[in-house]
UniProtKB/TrEMBL annotation, chain A:
<feature type="transmembrane region" description="Helical">
    <location>
        <begin position="380"/>
        <end position="398"/>
    </location>
</feature>
<feature type="compositionally biased region" description="Gly residues">
    <location>
        <begin position="55"/>
        <end position="69"/>
    </location>
</feature>
<feature type="compositionally biased region" description="Basic and acidic residues">
    <location>
        <begin position="117"/>
        <end position="130"/>
    </location>
</feature>
<keyword id="KW-0472">Membrane</keyword>
<feature type="region of interest" description="Disordered">
    <location>
        <begin position="47"/>
        <end position="132"/>
    </location>
</feature>
<protein>
    <submittedName>
        <fullName>Uncharacterized protein</fullName>
    </submittedName>
</protein>
<feature type="compositionally biased region" description="Basic and acidic residues">
    <location>
        <begin position="73"/>
        <end position="102"/>
    </location>
</feature>
TrEMBL record, chain B:
<keyword id="KW-0408">Iron</keyword>
<feature type="transmembrane region" description="Helical">
    <location>
        <begin position="191"/>
        <end position="210"/>
    </location>
</feature>
<keyword id="KW-1133">Transmembrane helix</keyword>
<keyword id="KW-0812">Transmembrane</keyword>
<feature type="transmembrane region" description="Helical">
    <location>
        <begin position="60"/>
        <end position="83"/>
    </location>
</feature>
<feature type="transmembrane region" description="Helical">
    <location>
        <begin position="130"/>
        <end position="150"/>
    </location>
</feature>
<keyword id="KW-0411">Iron-sulfur</keyword>
UniProtKB/TrEMBL annotation, chain C:
<comment type="similarity">
    <text>Belongs to the FldB/FldC dehydratase alpha/beta subunit family.</text>
</comment>
<dbReference type="InterPro" id="IPR010327">
    <property type="entry name" value="FldB/FldC_alpha/beta"/>
</dbReference>
<dbReference type="Pfam" id="PF06050">
    <property type="entry name" value="HGD-D"/>
</dbReference>
<feature type="compositionally biased region" description="Low complexity">
    <location>
        <begin position="19"/>
        <end position="30"/>
    </location>
</feature>
<protein>
    <submittedName>
        <fullName>Benzoyl-CoA reductase/2-hydroxyglutaryl-CoA dehydratase subunit BcrC/BadD/HgdB</fullName>
    </submittedName>
</protein>
<feature type="region of interest" description="Disordered">
    <location>
        <begin position="1"/>
        <end position="35"/>
    </location>
</feature>
Length: 408, 340, 454
């Protein structure tokens, strides 16, 4: 995945285009304007960390399969950084052992998956499988999309993050500083879908309370376990943050070895809920890493359906690398309508509303791959195949007819 | 016992396993010397060449540094596979080979006569697989490093062989994945490679109706595996003094290997193109002229009896043959049989 | 001895004369051709009877030889009954190089017309140089005189251009019968030769379809090939039985069985051969042999031995040797090589037939000796042969040419050899008998010496 660092990439872009393109400049201004007030923290995002990206993009929907698949996707990430390459190399081939040791040193096997000691070979196999899966590894980001800061504020260490595993065990994770970034990590040893949520509360100088929420989910291969006894739906309900944005994309099925990706041009159904209640008529904004954005309003069920915009705003040939799309929504208690919504889900606090203004923000970061239809043509391929077949087949048949005097 | 039937069965099993085996979350690794395509998502094991090309495209420092152990382990696995099974991968396991054999079966069923390469053509194309092998080693190397001071190749050339291998568009089709049946317009390299891929895939499908196993004559994997012909566990031995040079083996050989019929003095008959399908042993009417061995122990030998038995089955497989023989006999009311 | 022959001759001639007069050629009494024909008919009948009189005195002969004997006795008694009767067209062939399966598939009966009669050779002599192949002479004699009706009544005669004599045979007999020449490439190893041969076989196929008026289909061809395989299976069984330590069948009789294939329908022959094989198996269990175990095992190779020219096998076995195997195109090699159906498709089967007729053939008309040498060495090993007899017909140049290097190679391997150069006439029987007896004695002595040393 190619993440664009705005600090590095945007200013030169503005410079180079100043003469001919006013539009991006304007857009950039619009997006940077809110950042002008330094106290506004922006939105909270969970972006797939490098360990997930090495399998090719760390799709929020698709966890990586182990061997091979990653490299297949790497093919598309042309500008893969050296760092990524290093990680990639570890993926190749028959190298589970090394990876396993790496897992042991880094990862902390979560207690929920502590399997009962059984036969040694079986255990080994299980470890192998687990090693082939990817850890849940997310970077916490704070800011206004698309210009996310690489240098994370220390505030993020206070963020409350939790993970809901496929076996429905929920655990609070502690954000940790890794280099400049603040990350959370879970070994993710079980096969299934993992839901991660994060929230952060922040008060600025003017006394405004910002409550920031975000979610992410990933699929992972790994050790197969029995289906949980509890109802995953309710568990998910309980796990989701108070003000939540859910990706309602259809369930990709049970094949966890298969990669599921989002492509530009796909639809993205989202649902906004506050305290479990759908929020109607709320503007939801989808922003691409290049700054394109669209805003739609939720319907009665709190749902909104985006069509992932195709990004064709490039001049360096075809961009095949995945990009991050940011969806965000905001409830501001200064608005009457929003205040009512907040009050309706918080009847007990209705009498004494929190002092000052309260701003609720929820968001979702998505890795989206450019649709291959931008540069691939299935029809052309198909016709070439058929034509080749026809030409060769007919040619041979006619030649043979001439030689042998009969068709068969 | 007809070996070709058994072989087809084994091939079908291996095909199902290699293509759908991943659904059981079970994999036999990525160093298998056979064309089990890595692009098939539910695969139960995959081709050696893809990771091999990936490894080679690393910069030297990494290939011989941090990735060296992995590379060695990986090569070792390949070596073991090739040593133990050798060319049986081509004849008994390869999914692409199975597809070609299937097409041949369809062709036989429809009744289209096969054709053969002219000997000269056959000999002339021998180098192609070595050239492909050399390319699939050199091109990836040129991506990660600058070879002989040349500029580094474009990453579009990554895994060059996989991009033209007919397995890439065709094998994922069995999982309903049409996404490799494409022409990629994103760059000239991609355009050329993907067009080539489509051409070769078309050739593969149609060529199967013309000639048996003709793609195998250009397969770089066969070239790689032929390094293990002599030391491999599975062998094919010829007893020159029993051979009558009747040419049955040559005619039945899907790979059209002439040496098998012509060379009397050569003992090890696993030649560079041989895929150990044992067809030659099946059609050899001379006792023990040809023998398949595993670690030197004979497992299957040619014999006149076996030949006749198998031929009888081949002949009677076609419908109204039994009605025909009495018709031939009826007219033969000669005095000899009457006197008896 | 000679007086006995004269007596028999008179007896036979008395009995045979009405039949000879009844033959189509017999009407014009005075013409020299007619006289030749009558003499040939008489002499051949005499020779056949002589052979069968001698056979009648043999002990331990398998009973299952009867159908074959009946066939050969017909040469004397009823030449028109040699071939199976019926509406089938008859296709004459002259060599092993013609794929008989193709003829069967066309619904016709292949008749191999290679002749072995010394008297017929005399009858045809006028057209040939002094030293020439007696087989071709005899065939010409039979065709010109019409003594054996099968030489005249064939609807097509296919002559492969194997040796020089056959190349010219076509012209000589084309006055009497329709002839088709089949060009045989002499250098087997080249691809062009094979392609050429494939094309020739296709030409033959079209000619056969034209003559018989039936289309050769894939199924018919397959059935014919299968029939051939069954015959070959019996043939191989017979040859394998002969590998036994005990000599189960006289070499002459084995040659007769193969020889009968020339004239019999394939399926009938297979039946008769199967009966014979079964009987031989029984005899093997009972331990009944035709020769004592002490008899040296001899391999006969060279020019074909065709009825009624059974001089050489008789000489060898009467001298006390046992003819365990032969490498002759008239018997030991006749049905050995099998065509294989690889893909049951028309082209492939035609190619298989073509290959069968060309590639494994050890006939010396082909350029290299390697195949024949390998085969001989293999037979020597398989049949535990003690001595090799080279049979060269006077005028059979290809075998003659090959003889010297082959002898040298066999001698280098320590094989005792005897070269017999003869023709179809019985005149040199006595000197040959002496030589063969001496050879057999040598082999016996060698066996004794070896036994002592071992």
């Amino acid at each position: 995945m190619k993440k664009r660092c705005p600090a590095a990439s945007l200013p030169p872009m503005q410079k180079s285009r100043r003469g001919r393109c006013f539009f991006p400049l304007l857009l950039a201004l619009i997006f940077f304007l809110p950042m002008a007030s330094p106290a506004d923290p922006g939105f909270l995002f969970l972006e797939p960390g490098p360990e997930m990206r090495r399998s090719g993009g760390g799709n929020t929907q698709g966890g990586g399969h182990g061997t091979g698949m990653g490299m297949q996707r790497k093919k598309e990430g042309q500008e893969a950084s050296e760092n990524e390459r290093q990680a990639d190399s570890k993926k190749t081939g028959m190298e589970e052992k090394e990876e396993k040791s790496a897992m042991k040193s880094k990862g902390k096997g979560h207690p929920g998956s502590a399997a009962p000691e059984s036969e040694k070979g079986e255990k080994k196999e299980r470890e192998k499988r687990a090693a082939m899966s990817h850890p849940a590894h997310y970077t916490l980001l704070l800011g206004w999309p698309p210009a996310m800061k690489a240098q994370a504020p220390e505030d993020l260490l206070r963020a409350e993050t939790a993970i809901l595993r496929p076996d429905l065990s929920r655990e609070i994770l502690t954000p940790q500083k890794e280099g400049p970034a603040i990350r959370i990590r879970d070994a993710a040893l079980i096969q299934g879908t993992y839901h991660i949520s994060a929230s952060l509360e922040k008060t600025d100088d003017e006394g405004r309370i910002f409550r920031l929420f975000t979610t992410a989910s990933m699929r992972n291969t790994g050790e197969k376990t029995d289906p949980p006894e509890k109802n995953p739906e309710t568990a998910l309900e309980a796990h989701l943050p108070w003000f939540s944005m859910e990706d309602l994309s259809p369930d990709p099925g049970n094949n966890f070895a298969r990669i599921h990706r989002k492509y530009t041009g796909d639809t993205l159904p989202l649902r906004i809920r506050l305290g479990g209640m759908p929020v109607p008529d709320l503007p939801v904004t989808l922003t691409t890493a290049e700054g394109w954005q669209q805003t739609l309003h939720t319907d009665e069920a709190g749902q909104v359906k985006f069509i992932l915009i195709k990004e064709r705003f490039h001049d360096k040939g075809v961009n095949k690398a995945p990009i991050t799309f940011y969806a965000r929504a905001e409830l501001d208690s200064r608005s009457e309508k929003h205040l009512e919504i907040i009050k309706s889900v918080r009847p007990d606090a209705g009498d004494n509303p929190p002092a000052g203004t309260e701003i609720l923000r929820t968001s979702l970061a998505l890795t989206v791959h450019p649709t291959p239809l931008d540069w691939e043509s299935r029809a052309a391929g198909f016709y070439t195949l058929i034509l080749t077949g026809l030409v060769i087949g007919l040619g041979t048949a006619i030649r043979r007819r001439k030689r042998r005097g009969r068709w068969f | 016992m007809r070996v070709d039937r058994i072989r087809l069965f084994v091939q079908a099993l291996c095909f199902v396993f290699l293509i759908y085996g991943g659904l059981t979350i079970f994999s036999i690794g990525t160093a298998i010397p056979t064309m089990a395509c890595i692009y098939a998502e539910n695969r139960g094991g995959s081709c050696f060449l893809y990771p091999f090309q990936r490894f080679l495209s690393m910069p030297w420092a990494m290939l011989f540094g941090s990735a060296a152990t992995a590379f060695l382990i990986y090569l070792g696995t390949f070596f073991l596979w090739a040593l133990v099974f050798g060319k049986t991968f081509c004849g008994w396991i390869c999914p692409l080979g199975f597809l070609q054999d299937l097409i041949t079966k369809i062709r036989e069923w429809v009744g289209i006569d096969g054709s053969r390469f002219a000997w000269k053509t056959r000999d002339r194309f021998q180098w192609v697989k070595y050239a492909l092998l050399a390319l699939l080693i050199l091109l990836p190397m040129g991506i990660g490093n600058s070879l002989l001071g040349l500029p580094r190749f474009t990453p579009d050339l990554a895994v060059p062989f996989c991009q033209i291998c007919p397995g890439k568009p065709l094998i994922p089709l069995f999982e309903g994945d049409l996404s490799h049946l494409i022409i990629d317009f994103s760059s000239t390299t991609k355009l050329v490679l993907s067009s080539l891929s489509m051409l070769i895939a078309g050739l593969f499908l149609v060529g199967g109706f013309v000639k048996r196993r003709y793609i195998c004559a250009f397969c770089p994997m066969a070239a790689l595996l032929s390094l293990f012909d002599r030391i491999g566990f599975v062998g094919l031995k010829k007893k020159g003094e029993a051979c009558t040079c009747c040419g049955n083996c040559f005619r039945a050989c899907p790979m059209e290997i002439r040496e098998i019929a012509e060379l009397r003095d050569k003992k090890h008959m696993v030649t560079q193109d041989c895929m150990l399908c044992m067809r030659c042993i099946e059609v050899c009417p001379e006792n023990k002229a040809l023998t398949a061995t595993i670690i030197g122990l004979p497992v299957f030998s040619a014999s006149a009896e076996g030949f006749l038995k198998r031929q009888n089955k081949t002949a009677s497989a076609g419908g109204p043959f039994h009605g025909e023989t009495p018709a031939l006999q009826d007219t033969a009311t000669d005095p000899e049989s009457a006197s008896k | 001895m000679k007086s006995a022959i004269i007596k028999k001759l008179s007896a036979i001639s008395g009995k045979k004369s009405p039949e000879a007069a009844g033959s189509p050629e017999g009407s014009s009494k005075g013409s020299p051709e007619d006289r030749v024909a009558r003499r040939l008919s008489l002499h051949m009948a005499m020779a056949v009877r002589e052979i069968y009189d001698a056979i009648a005195m043999e002990k331990n002969r398998p009973v299952s030889m009867t159908p074959f004997d009946t066939l050969f006795k017909n040469f004397a008694d009823a030449p028109e009954k040699i071939l199976p009767t019926g509406p089938r067209k008859k296709i004459g062939i002259y060599c092993m190089a013609v794929p008989e399966e193709l003829i069967y598939a066309a619904g016709a009966l292949p008749v191999r017309l290679c002749a072995g009669s010394g008297d017929a050779a005399e009858a045809g002599e006028a057209l040939f140089p002094d030293v020439s192949c007696p087989m071709v002479k005899a065939a010409t004699g039979f065709t010109r005189t019409g003594v054996l009706p099968m030489y005249r009544e064939c609807d097509l005669i296919i002559i492969p251009t194997t040796c020089d004599w056959k190349v010219k045979l076509g012209e000589l007999i084309s006055r009497h019968v329709p002839v088709m020449m089949l060009s045989v490439p002499k250098f087997k190893a080249a691809e062009s030769s094979r392609r050429f041969w494939y094309a020739e076989i296709r030409r033959l196929m079209h000619a056969l379809e034209k003559v018989t008026g039936k289309r050769i289909t894939r199924k018919k061809l397959r059935a014919a090939m299968d029939m051939m395989h069954k015959a070959q299976q019996e043939f191989r069984r017979l040859q394998t039985l002969r590998m036994d330590d005990l000599s189960l069948i006289r070499g002459r009789d084995a040659a007769a069985v193969a020889n009968a294939w020339f004239y019999m329908d394939g399926a009938d022959w297979t039946l008769a051969a199967r009966n014979l094989n079964e009987e031989l198996l029984e005899r093997k269990e009972k331990g009944i042999g035709t020769a004592p175990r002490t008899a040296p095992r001899i391999l006969l190779t060279g020019s074909p031995v065709i009825f009624p020219n059974w001089k050489i096998p008789d000489l060898i076995e009467n001298a006390g040797g046992t003819l365990t195997c032969d490498e002759l195109c008239s018997s030991g090699r006749l049905l050995w090589d099998m065509a294989c159906i690889d893909e049951p498709l028309f082209d492939d089967m035609l190619d298989a037939l073509a290959d069968r007729c060309l590639l494994p053939c050890t006939c010396p008309v082909f350029t290299d000796r390697e195949d024949r040498k390998t085969r001989l060495f293999r037979m020597i090993k398989d049949y535990r042969v003690e001595g090799v007899v080279h049979h060269v017909l006077k005028g059979c140049h290809p075998y003659d040419m090959e003889l010297r290097p082959l002898e040298a190679e066999l001698a280098a391997a320590g094989v005792s050899q005897l070269k017999i150069e003869t023709d179809y006439s019985p005149e040199d029987t006595e000197p040959l008998r002496t030589r063969v007896e001496a050879f057999v004695e040598t082999l016996k002595g060698r066996r004794l010496r070896m036994g002592k040393s071992a």
